[in-house]
Amino acid sequence: MMLYREIGLLHEYSPYWLLRLWGSSDRLVALSRRLYYGGGGYRGWEEKCRKMERWPLSKIEEFQLKGIQKLVRHCYENVPYYSRLFKKLGLLPSDIRCLEDLEKLPVLTKNDVLDHYPEFFARNMSKSWKYHQQTSGTTGRPAMFYRDEGAAAAFIGSCDYFGMMSPNEMRKTRALIFSRWAIWSLLYRRYNPIFSRFSPVTGGVYVSDLPLGDSTFELCARYIKKFNIQRIYGFPSAVYAFAKYVERKNLSTNIKAILCGSEILYEGQRSVIEKAFGCEVFDWYTSSECVVNACECEKHAGLHITPFSVVNIDPSKVGKAVGRIVFTSMASYLMPLLRYTAGDVGSITYKRCACGRSYPRLRRIEGRTNDFVILPNGQYIHPVKFYMYPVEIKGIEDIYFLQHEDYSMDISVVKEKGVDKRELAQIIGRRFSKTTRGVLPFSVRFTDAIRRSSKKYRIVDTKVVSDLNMPRKRG
Ligand SMILES: [Zn+2]
Q1: Are residues 387 and 363 in the same domain?
Q2: ipTM of the complex
Q3: How much is the pLDDT for 267?
Q4: For residue 135, what pLDDT is reported?
Q5: Under a CB-based contact definition with an 8 Å cutoff, are residues 414 and 424 in contact?
Q6: CA 221 to ligand 1 center in whole angstroms
Q7: Same domain, 250 and 388
């Protein structure tokens, strides 16, 4: 039984003094976390992550294989979709003798899940009192992704482990969280007023990531002081925008570490953020289905993947060393997803990291594949080119590129105060022609605030259908 909704409501409606009291007792926080996540299993996973981090890779894979074999047997016996799939492929659970054998199964996308939705639930488990999150596919059919206690424990345990991994023991300090974050954001479904309450369960002060602007950042800065906040979690683009504000206002904060996730973190963004706050930025990768969790260590040389999920690369879509990232969580039994992809592209290194940890590392995550801008000849342009505009062109507060089906591009710009519109439009135009080799028609439009079609704080969206772009709902 996962009481996240009930505890979320208590957080939402309790006065701050009560929440502070609640958060000041370690035992009370531990109890609320157990109720919230449906048990204390996350502590076991945190322990495992720490214990196994220096094991030889072969021993880690042995551990994973055992978990996967057990899960596959469960899928075969209890999950209709997989019973059928295994029969169709002429496979038995005993055919999965090593982790590579998983590749006998096809890659699963969100749309596959939506097409066969009821068949993904284990017949021997109940859906009630489980964590679920709404999502939609190409046709916009809504569906709930369900996570049971085991899946939540693995995910939260590895989040806690990342807190331990940081030299600053981030977990013990308070956080400013730009919300819509996995399980935690569910605490705060209502984004009005902008600031929600403090949550004793996560130690976080939540702020809605949209709309962003000076008034939001002013409040962020005030809350950082008031709550003695020492860490920040958020989308890189949101944290970057906040960093620019901090820089512009010449503010000093006591931030010790920043975790960026849910979209690509570019080096240009990282250096601006690190300079503004005077601390390290850690890149974090996860999926809203909670089937993978990977985070940078202090060496910042790729993202260590925690062992509850087996991750590999499906190169058939992109290239030899780089491909779609495919993952299987061994901890998810209610709605298991074998070889699931969220469409992100990247590579993996299995070499031991300079930090001494042996967990494989995700590298070169190229972002949601639909972020690539497509040229009429089928070539594509990496979104990093566009993310760099506000970093490298002075006077841009916010920018958004929307490519239409006919390849033309709408560029929406929020300019900084006192900047000449015509001049800025010319600079952007020249740069855009260069980036796109002059083959894309475009228009630059100034606005006070940007309305994005996607929920994530993207800079680039394309409506052109291409192999590289995952099918999705049009905004
Ligand atoms: Zn490392």
Answers
A1: no
A2: 0.99
A3: 80
A4: 59
A5: no
A6: 31
A7: no
Distance 208 CA to ligand 1 centre (A): 31
For the chain, how many structural domains are there in total?
A: 2
Q: Are residues 203 and 128 in the same domain?
A: yes
Distance 114 CA to ligand 1 centre (A): 36
Ligand 1 centroid–CA 231 distance in Å is 20
Compute the distance from residue 246 Cα to the ligand 1 centre, in Å. 30
Residues 114 and 231 grouped into a single domain? yes
Task: Say how many Å lie between the CA of residue 474 and the centre of ligand 1.
Answer: 38
Q: Which domain holds residue 282?
A: 1-367
User: How far, in Å, from the CA of 32 to the mean position of ligand 1?
Assistant: 32
For residue 50, the model assigns a pLDDT of 94
CA of 430 from ligand 1 middle (Å) equals 41
Closest CA to 223 of 4, 16, 32: 16
Residues 307, 274 within the same domain: yes
CA of residue 263 to ligand 1 center, whole Å? 21
Q: 414 has which bridge partners?
A: 398
Cα(281) to ligand 1 centroid in Å equals 14
Residue 161 CA to ligand 1 centre (angstroms):
13
Last residue of a domain, one of 345, 367, 389: 367
Please tell me the predicted confidence (pLDDT) of residue 81.
Answer: 98
Tens digit of each residue's pLDDT (9 = 90 or more) over 122-162: 999 998 888 887 654 434 455 678 899 999 999 989 988 88
Whole-number Å distance, alpha carbon 188 to ligand 1 midpoint, is 33
Q: Which residue has the tokens 């969280």?
A: 177
User: Quick check: is 100 in a domain?
Assistant: yes
Separation in Å, CA 90 to CA 35, 96, 108, 116: 42, 12, 18, 20
Give phi and psi for 361, each to the nearest 5.
-120, 135
Of 349, 367, 385, which residue constitutes the final position of a domain?
367
Instruction: Determine, yes or no, domain membership for 470.
Output: no
Q: How many whole angstroms from 358 Cα to the centroid of ligand 1?
A: 8
Of 472, 458, 423, 439, the residue nearest 138 (C-alpha): 472
Q: Are residues 263 and 308 in the same domain?
A: yes
- What separation in Å is there between the alpha carbon of 108 and the centre of ligand 1? 29
Please check whether residues 69 and 218 belong to one and the same domain: yes
| DSSP result, 29-70 | HHHHHHHHHTSSHHHHHHHHHHHHTTS-HHHHHHHHHHHHHH
In tens, the pLDDT along 238-250 reads 788 889 889 999 9
**417 and 453, same domain (yes or no):** yes
Name the token pair of 235: 């989308």
Helix (H, G, I), strand (E, B) or coil at 303: strand
Positions of the chain with pLDDT lower than 50, given as ranges: 136-140, 167-168, 180-195, 210, 369-370, 455, 467-475
Q: What is the CATH number of the domain that holds 388?
A: 3.30.300.30
